[in-house]
Structure formats: structure tokens, C-alpha cells
Amino acid sequence: MTEAAGASRRPSGTPCWVSLMVHGLGRTEDFYADLFGWEYEPGPAQLGPGVRAVLDGEEVAGIGEMPPDRHLPVAWTTYFATDDADCAAEAIRSCGGTVAVGPMDAGAEGRVAICSDPLGAIFGIWQDSGRHGRPYGKPGTPVWNELVTQDTLTVGKFYQHVFGHESERHPAASADFDYLTLRLDGRPVAAVHGVGRSLPHDRGPHWMTYFEVHDTDAATARVAELGGRVLSPPRDRIRGRLALVADPEGAVFALVQSAGEDAP
């Protein structure tokens, strides 16, 4: 689905990181530690209070804490690698997107910005120093990122122009199944799923993070035991056995027991 484990730096336009902003850091840390086996270490001070999730000695995700007076929706954010965050930010603006925060320095980590596409889906860009290898692909790590939006036509072109993605419509695409795979050098890196009026009214367009697990059914049951919610029970899909869940603060994510390296 994504690059092999241990790659130190990802090509520009590739999803490279995920982060979560929450109201209560401690409870969230406990939830994901139990579910995925994460441990934690302090995050970059420039990005505010937060931690880095660590698995087998490698960083896999970031979790930050909102100020007490902020009451924003809690959601996972997908970040795309870029060789130049400032140039990428200009491209986002010129293509109809918005740059809400940054670009700003994140110490030795590089430069980062929080943006949104023309239909409002939030994502980040990260000019990474390449200092960290990240074990993507093993259980407990992000393995796929998919944009859930109204339709693929306009927003698909936005990501193509900003990040140089090539788009490929799914062979089964039809009036009832609107799906684009985004590729770089022929390799799938992300997807855009147009769901029309089925888009959740309380969320709007959004990037979904898929986390690999050993056993989707067991992990889904554990989410419920830990105080999360099961939004869509496990079922077999193209990329493997998939479930949609939410953590105790409501952040939605997918659990997947991957079918193989060629998925989706």
C-alpha cells in the first residue's frame, strides 16, 4: 500500500505522516497504546504540547493536545511529503485550496503547514529533514490514506496539480462507484473516493487513515472495550478485511488486515 518499512524519506507527494489533535492527551495515549502497542516520547516543542507515538523504536504518528479554550473536531490528519513547503503552499493557494497554518519551522523535523483542498478536506504538508525512518506497513502503523469527498472530478485535479499525482479510475468505477487511485511513478500512494450525498453531514470531506492490524475482528472488538465506537463492522473489501471505528474522543479511522502488497 505504501512504502516499505524503514524508508528514511518519502518522495514529494507521498503521504508521509499522520497526526491527531485531542482534548485529553492521557486518555488518548492509553487507548492507542493498548490498541496498537504504541509507546510515547515528547514531540517537537514548536508544535505545542504533544507526543510522538513510537513502535519498535520508530516514530509512527503524532498526537497533540488542543488548548482548553479550543473546541475543534477531533480527527486524524494526513500529511504529504514535499521538497519545499513554501512552494507547495503557493501551489495549494493558486489551485483553490487554503493554507490555514504555516508553513512554519518544526525544529530539526523540517517545515510544516496545515491546509485544505477546494472542497474543505484538511491535510498537511511536511518538508521533512529525513531524520527518521518510519516502519509503515506493519501492524500498528498507517498503511493507506483515502480522501472521502463529494466527487472525484474537481478535487482529483487539485491533488494532481499540487503534488504531481497521476490519477487512475478504478476498473469497477461507475455512476454508483466513484473512485480514483493517485499514483506517483506508477505506484499507488493514496485514493479519492467520491460518495456524493452519502458524505457524512457532521464531517464533510475528509482524509481517512487506515491502520494495519493483525486481526481486524479482534482489533474492532478491542476498540469497543476501550471506550471507542464501531461505525462499520469488519467486512472483506478489495484491500483486505476492513472496519471503520472511532476513538473515545470521536476521531474516526479504519482498521485493515491487508489482502496483499498490491491493494487496493
From TrEMBL:
| Region forming the signal peptide | none
Q: Which domain of life is it from?
A: Bacteria
By its UniProt entry, which Pfam families does this protein fall under? Glyoxalase (PF00903), Glyoxalase_6 (PF18029)
InterPro entries listed in its UniProt record: Anthracycline_SecMetBiosynth, Glyas_Bleomycin-R_OHBP_Dase, Glyas_Fos-R_dOase_dom, Glyoxalase_6, VOC_core
Q: Where is the VOC domain?
A: 14-128, 141-258
PROSITE patterns, per the entry: VOC (PS51819)
* Descriptive protein name: VOC family protein
Q: Organism, per UniProt?
A: Streptomyces polychromogenes
